[in-house]
Inverse folding.
């Protein structure tokens, strides 16, 4: 049935043409924008995911800039630490030269002072955009990543850079918790008197039929039958004179009746003692130095300060972040050495219980009282504390400087190593962020970018379909005209 009111063929042709035109419009849009999903109406879920990922990409661009800034800052600090290490090594060579007595120590001290001033200059100049990692103790956080959880929440990750204080500033003892119980003094007074032990010769009358041997500090006296004449008192007198004749450094012998008293003034060394055929009161003579022994179980927190008072002079060291009682002992040693008290020398060692000990020896004619104190909550001493007090113009100063400079060199080496590790980590993270950003972009592209080869082929096909659709609609529209022939 034909109708002049309803042209079904034209309607079908028109709908087909509309669909072709819609597809053609979408294909042209893909070609012009390069995206198959350009807006939320194209595919809302994929569009939403792509926008979230695009925001992450922009965030990672900011992270890359943060890492570049952080890497530059750490690189400056590392270079500064390495320079300081070299300068401290130069100072060490000057100190070694000062160990000889026939050198001009005043000129050597002038060179050391110049190198020390240069170190201070390096510390003050080692900053990038105002941030100096060689001064202070507060950590610095560098933004390193944005972590997105499955629930969509985002958290920032940081690379923490520990400052390495390379200043020479003295610490300030706090007013917090009393820590004096963590340090124990062996005596309240340091004197130049030596420690003693005795060897008692047996009271059995004639010594001519006895054998006897005594070993003191590695030197030995051996007597066979008939070597000693007279009674035990005479034998003791003979042996005492023989001990003194050995010339053992720091060891002297005196006699009273049949008892030989051995006195050792060695500052930091025990003297071994053994006897056969006689009775020794001890197996060794203790070192003369008094000791400040630190706890083997307590911990050291940043700001924990300890003091030792020698006579009227008080010396302080306040621990920095991550330091131990080893650092405290060495810091106090540097402080005491810098006080240049006549006849006073120090040494740091570990005892048999692995506790750190500051030993203080007094070789002067005047006794020195000793006291200690400790408190939390102070201001930490600088990592190069003690550098300012190095003085090689005297024998004692040159000797103490040699051990103290080693500690300072180790501190600067540790600082450079820490900065080097941090810089390496930042470089790895920066490289990863670059690769991650590329991967995210590729992922976004695979979701929303148009396949241009496919779009081009589809465009040509749709253009042909459009032409055919127009012709079909034209044919369908001509169909009612044939009805007119029925009325002629």
């Amino acid at each position: 049935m034909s109708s002049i009111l309803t042209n079904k063929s034209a309607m079908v042709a028109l709908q087909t043409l509309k669909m072709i035109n819609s597809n053609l419009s979408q294909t042209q849009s893909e070609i012009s924008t390069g995206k198959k999903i350009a807006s939320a109406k194209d595919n809302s879920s994929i569009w939403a995911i792509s926008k979230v990922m695009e925001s992450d990409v922009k965030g990672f661009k900011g992270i890359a800039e943060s890492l570049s800034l952080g890497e530059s800052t750490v690189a400056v600090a590392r270079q500064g630490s390495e320079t300081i290490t070299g300068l401290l090594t130069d100072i060490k060579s000057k100190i070694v030269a000062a160990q000889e007595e026939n050198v001009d120590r005043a000129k050597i001290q002038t060179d050391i002072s110049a190198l020390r001033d240069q170190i201070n200059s390096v510390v003050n100049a080692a900053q990038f955009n105002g941030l100096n990692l060689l001064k202070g103790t507060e950590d610095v956080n560098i933004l390193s990543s944005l972590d997105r959880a499955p629930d969509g929440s985002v958290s920032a990750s940081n690379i923490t850079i520990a400052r390495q204080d390379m200043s020479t500033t003295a610490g300030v003892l706090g007013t917090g918790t009393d820590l004096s119980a963590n340090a124990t003094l062996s005596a309240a007074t340091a004197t130049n008197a030596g420690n003693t032990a005795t060897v008692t010769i047996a009271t059995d009358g004639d010594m001519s039929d006895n054998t006897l041997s005594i070993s003191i500090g590695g030197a030995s006296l051996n007597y066979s039958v008939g070597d000693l004449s007279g009674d035990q008192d005479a034998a003791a007198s003979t042996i005492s004179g023989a001990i003194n004749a050995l010339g053992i450094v720091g060891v002297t012998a005196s006699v009273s009746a049949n008892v030989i008293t051995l006195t050792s003034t060695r500052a930091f060394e025990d003297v071994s003692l053994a006897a056969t055929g006689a009775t020794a009161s001890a197996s060794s003579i203790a070192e003369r130095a008094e000791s400040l022994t630190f706890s083997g179980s307590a911990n050291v927190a940043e700001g924990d300060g300890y003091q030792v008072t020698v006579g009227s002079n008080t010396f302080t060291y306040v621990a920095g972040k991550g330091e131990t009682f080893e650092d405290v002992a060495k810091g106090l040693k540097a402080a005491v050495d810098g006080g240049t008290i006549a006849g006073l020398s120090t040494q740091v060692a570990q005892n048999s219980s692995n506790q750190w000990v500051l030993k203080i020896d007094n070789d002067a004619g005047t006794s020195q009282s000793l006291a200690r104190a400790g408190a939390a909550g102070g201001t930490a001493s600088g990592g190069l504390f003690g550098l300012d007090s190095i003085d090689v113009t005297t024998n004692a100063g040159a000797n103490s400087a040699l051990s103290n400079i080693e500690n300072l060199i180790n501190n600067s080496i540790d600082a450079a190593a820490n900065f080097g590790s941090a810089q390496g980590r930042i470089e790895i993270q920066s490289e990863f962020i670059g690769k991650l950003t590329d991967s995210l972009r590729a992922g976004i592209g695979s979701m929303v970018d148009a396949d241009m080869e496919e779009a081009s082929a589809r465009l040509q096909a749709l253009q042909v379909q459009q032409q055919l659709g127009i012709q079909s609609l034209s044919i369908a529209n001509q169909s009612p005209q044939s009805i007119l022939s029925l009325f002629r």
The helical segments are 8-33, 44-97, 105-125, 232-246, 325-338, 395-448, 452-478. The first strand starts at residue 127 and ends at 128.
